[in-house]
């Protein structure tokens, strides 16, 4: 087991042939990660480093066995009008960063984001450092826009070997982000930007409320990704 909080415990399934798979056993109040197994009760109590087992639809952790009852659909947002979504995002500047965010995170820029991957990976405190969350937000936004830069950024992240550079939890979430998969508040924000709905500010506030630095960094990454699509489209003849 690689992480444990009062809301979730995270299990890494090691493999000699590839990077580990990660399963997050989450309580009802936890942010629903793409790799989450969601419970109706608080997760089992267990310490980091304690043995766990995953297989045959079950997770054994902390002396308890959790069985999968049904599957849930992981959010994978799609933008019907990326240019309009990018314009709406551009009209709402990202607020000042939380105090714990390193300056290099806010200096990433848009056009050079793939070249900044080695510096951003693992940058910042917590289970999902702010630098990783910026990359994840950009990956999801570019994927939602079906933009070719999504593949370039995903390749740059993979080449930087995230499982060797940042936390196991954060590296696993970057794998999901490269597939366009994200937490529900990111998906809701992209949908609101796409549709221009009246609840856009409330949805944005929900995203900013995620974690200590994660919501802010994911928002910044989404704006970076959308800004890249807007610049490319405006430069086209």
Any overview of this molecule?
The chain is α+β, with helices and mostly antiparallel strands and 237 residues long. The chain has two domains: 3-67, no CATH class; 82-235, no CATH class. It has helices at residues 82-90, 103-106, 113-120, 130-144, 149-159, 162-165, 168-178, 184-195, 200-208, 214-235, and strands at 3-4, 8-13, 21-26, 36-38, 52-55, 58-61, 64-67. The protein has a four-stranded mixed sheet, covered by helices on one side. A hairpin with a 7-residue loop joins strand 2 and strand 3. Helix 8 (184-195) packs antiparallel against helix 9 (200-208). The mean pLDDT is 91.
What labels would you give this structure?
237 residues; alpha+beta; 4-stranded mixed β-sheet; 3-stranded antiparallel β-sheet
Topology (SSEs and partners):
Layout: E1 3-4, E2 8-13, E3 21-26, E4 36-38, E5 52-55, E6 58-61, E7 64-67, H1 82-90, H2 103-106, H3 113-120, H4 130-144, H5 149-159, H6 162-165, H7 168-178, H8 184-195, H9 200-208, H10 214-235
Parallel strand pairs: 3-4
Antiparallel strand pairs: 1-2, 2-3, 5-6, 6-7
Helix pairs in contact: 1-8, 1-10, 3-4, 3-5, 4-5, 4-7, 4-10, 8-9, 9-10
Give a quick precis of the structure.
This protein has 237 residues and is α+β, with helices and mostly antiparallel strands. It is built from ten helices and seven strands. Strand 1 and strand 2 form a beta hairpin.
């Amino acid at each position: 087991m690689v992480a444990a909080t009062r809301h979730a415990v995270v299990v890494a399934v090691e493999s000699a042939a590839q990077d580990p798979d990660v399963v997050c056993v989450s309580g009802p109040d936890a942010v629903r990660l793409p790799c989450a197994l969601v419970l109706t009760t608080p997760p089992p109590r267990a310490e980091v480093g304690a043995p766990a087992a995953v297989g045959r639809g079950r997770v054994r952790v902390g002396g308890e066995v959790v069985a999968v009852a049904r599957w849930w659909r992981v959010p994978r947002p799609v933008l019907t009008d990326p240019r309009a979504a990018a314009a709406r995002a551009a009209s709402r500047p990202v607020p000042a960063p939380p105090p714990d965010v390193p300056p290099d995170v806010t200096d990433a820029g848009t056009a050079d984001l793939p070249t900044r991957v080695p510096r951003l990976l693992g940058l910042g405190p917590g289970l999902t450092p702010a630098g990783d969350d910026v990359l994840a937000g950009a990956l999801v936004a570019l994927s939602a826009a079906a933009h070719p830069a999504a593949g370039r950024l995903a390749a740059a992240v993979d080449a930087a070997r995230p499982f060797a550079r940042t936390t196991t939890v954060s590296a696993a979430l970057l794998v999901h982000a490269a597939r366009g998969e994200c937490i529900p508040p990111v998906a809701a924000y992209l949908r609101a930007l796409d549709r221009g709905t009246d609840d856009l500010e409330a949805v944005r506030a929900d995203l900013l409320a995620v974690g200590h630095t994660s919501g802010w960094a994911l928002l910044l990454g989404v704006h970076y990704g959308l800004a890249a699509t807007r610049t490319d489209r405006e430069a086209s003849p």
